[in-house]
Amino acid sequence: MADEMTGAQYNAGPIGKRRDPALVALLMVVTCNVYWLYWIYRTYKEVRDHNSAATRIIPGEALGFVFIPLFNFFWFFRVWWDCPRAILRLQRGDPMGERLLSPAAITTLMYTGFLLNVTLAIIHPGLLVVTEAMIVYAVIDCQRALNAHWQRHSPAGAAPASVEQGETFAAMLGIWRDTIQWGRVATFPAALIFSGVVVFVASQVGRLLVRMLFEERGSMSGMVEFSWMMRVSLYIGISEVILGLLAWALVWALRNEIGAAFIVAAFYAPLGIPLRFVSFSLFSESAMTFQFDAGLAVNVVYRFVWSLVLLVGLALSVRWIRPRFLALWLPAALAEATAGTVSEFLFAVVRGQNLLDLVINTDPFGGRIKYVFERFMERLIDYGGEIVTALLFAGLMTMGLLLFPLREKSQVPTAAK
């Protein structure tokens, strides 16, 4: 079948249903991609009803062949080769000025996301957010293209509603048309602090309960853990304030989000050494002495990787990805997973630990089943904490941006040049 249809070949039938891309993304994540089965069936049905010449695949085949063992592996690739091209044929056959879908990009995202699922899960389950992001983005990009096409064929014929016009990472930091939006300036560090501290405390309480359950540790141990949690919480809080202020100041000064992100990460990473010493000293009864060791070195690398991935990811995603919550959540989740993976492997190298044992995280030769289960529970808490941290950050940022919408220059005090 040719990729283009002439006007004589194009016979528009009933239009399909416009679906909210944000709701599609949410349903994909919540149902662990099971919603995709319904989505692919409805998409093929609506495309075929609108114009049967767009694709040879009928809705029953698109869905039914997914349940055939072994053959379904081939069918996934076949469907995701055809689906975006069918949508493109609708657009080219009835051009109305809409943005053309890129089948190559959609197919690449789907193929890559599908093939990397197993690989990244072995390395670090938190990295599955990367592959899930690819799959979800491919689906919602197809849905946006369909929405635009159905909208132009609707009786009203109105253009699709715009989304967050003018929103950039700089605007999220409170920099908007040479003005300072002070509410947004405070939103970024506040979201970082709250999500980081709350999830850290919750995860440490969970780890403490697991150890008390399996090792029968007493209340005194709990007091020691509480003191340590206070130190780390203070360290996280001060660090996030510094990160937020550095990001805002450098983006404002340089007017270059990506360049500012690299400079912020370079300054933010080594600042963790004095901050850690100061914050840990405040809740310590004995005098602390400074000693640079492998743990501090790994912490510097962790801070650099985490801040760089987060800031660069936000600078890119808020421009290209909708809905806004997804654009905020993906970089945060990717930063948590990437930095956590890098630090774990660096610690393993420093300790001379077997990397395979680190990935599998078992003790097969020791025969200590209780130890294995304890470690499994702790790792589950860690991975869950990373995802929840990103969700909290994205949710708080979204709320803050809604509470402090962008205003014109006359309504906001002008910043000093």
What does the model show?
Helices cover 71% and strands 1% of the residues. Mean pLDDT is 76; it is low at 1-10, 157-165, 217-224, 358-369 and 410-417. Strand 1 and strand 2 (179-180) form a beta hairpin. By secondary structure, it is mainly alpha-helical. It has a two-stranded antiparallel sheet. It has helices spanning 21-30, 35-50, 59-64, 71-93, 103-123, 128-153, 169-172, 182-215, 219-254, 257-282, 294-320, 324-351, 355-360, 369-403, and strands spanning 175-176, 179-180. It is built from 14 helices and two strands. It is globular and about 70 Å long.
Tell me the layout of helices and strands.
Blueprint (H helix, E strand, L loop, with lengths): L20 H10 L4 H16 L8 H6 L6 H23 L9 H21 L4 H26 L15 H4 L2 E2 L2 E2 L1 H34 L3 H36 L2 H26 L11 H27 L3 H28 L3 H6 L8 H35 L14
Antiparallel strand pairs: 1-2
Helix pairs in contact: 1-6, 2-4, 4-5, 4-6, 5-6, 8-9, 8-14, 9-10, 10-11, 11-12, 12-14
Strand tally is 2
- Mean pLDDT, all residues: 76
Largest sheet: 2 strands, antiparallel
Alpha carbon gap, first and last residue: 60 Å
What are its keywords?
disordered N terminus; 71% helix; mainly alpha; 14 helices; two-stranded antiparallel ribbon; disordered C terminus; 417 residues
